[in-house]
Amino acid sequence: MDGIRIIEGGLSSKRDKDLSHETQNGKAQDLNLFDLYEQDIKEIQAQAEPTQAMTDADAAPSMIDTEANAQLEEIKLPAPHRRWAWVEIDREAIRHNLLAIRKRIGPGIKIMAIVKADAYGHGAIEVARQALLSGAEFLGVANVDEGIELRQAGIEAPILILTETPQQSIPLVLRYKLIPTITTMEYALALGEQADAAGQSAAYHLKIDTGMNRIGVHYSDAADFLRTISFHRGLDLQGVFTHFSTADESDSYEFKLQLERFNRALDEIRYMGINPGLVHAANSAAAIRYKQTHFDMVRIGLAMYGLHPSRMTRDLIDLRPAMSVRARITYVKSVPVGEGVGYNYTYRSPGSVLIATIPIGYGDGLSRALSNRMDVMFKGRLCPQVGTICMDMTMFEIDQRSSQLNPRLAADVGDEVLVVGREGGIELTLDNMAEQLGTINYELACRFGLRLQRLLK
Prior knowledge:
CATH architecture of the largest domain: Alpha-Beta Barrel
Radius of gyration: 26 Å
CATH class of the largest domain: Alpha Beta
Structural class: alpha/beta
Number of helices: 15
CATH topology of the largest domain: TIM Barrel
Number of domains: 2
Number of strands: 22
CATH superfamily of the largest domain: Alanine racemase
Largest sheet: 9 strands, parallel
Strand content: 15-25%
Helix content: 25-40%
Distance between the termini: 9 Å
């Protein structure tokens, strides 16, 4: 495991005491959110302290447990030895992908690295740092908590929240200097009022709906919307953007229609004498395929992780997947011919095989629907997964028949198995898994990041 270290991150459970202090001084308008933060601390402390109803006998094991835990904390055990299943994240691949994007879009165009959903399962803090070192200037997240996580990790780059936050979260938006998206008049006025009361001018981006009909101000109303709120000294328009629904598809009619509507809205905004700030529209697919969508900035999510948004981009740019999934064998046995393996016996041994178990399952993101439909790589060979994939375990078959071209494979507890990744010219991809499941590679990457320990290469 040379050259690999454990990714550290995640939201701190400690609340920022300055927030409640500012609230008491009248700098923040909404008390409920901060009260909840303080309440979290009190509940954790209450759970950690023995209640009056506890007897000395009840309390004694707690003291013993505390001493034992202190001793356990002194044992530094690398993640692959705590559990024999993990995800590896290749920082060099992320760097390579962003440089490939830069080459594709040319100089002068800013890059926003999208690190929402814990960087698509890759680890938001480490990916954000690597992205900024590799030329990205902005970061994009989905909600306030994701933005706070990056700020608490010491990341100071501009962070755009890609959706409108609950009004109750505005004090946190201001406190952590996050840039919210505005899509409604009610939120705009609430943001402006609270920012002004705190002696600030809140930066924001306006989301324009050009046909996706998910969120955003309708393209025909965007100019009037901005004119209506432009008076407010608590608001600072720093960007305008839209999102394409079909930039990854071969039929470009709907895409062109959205782009035409966006340009029309921009013309009207400028005609009213309003500076739209940073204009951005391109996701990964549009950034790779359509130069006319680059404007001032592109938003790169999937491509940064080395995954293609569609088949149309494969011949246009060289991307390297940053995520691989690995495990070690925990159990090996010979199963007699006709014997079933796993739940419901969806597989029965043909004889002359070993059945090996690895500690990864659908609880880790390996979809149960892939049962008996996928391969793993063991010692340079593809081996079929067999039996129903369990929550925490998966089995695969090692053929014990041998020939001059394929000598018999020995298998031992602790041997490494590749579930997703590339070795020796053979690749097990999220794309292939997604195609079998009728879904997208985004979803599978996010799943693998939920429970498996991430290791950084």
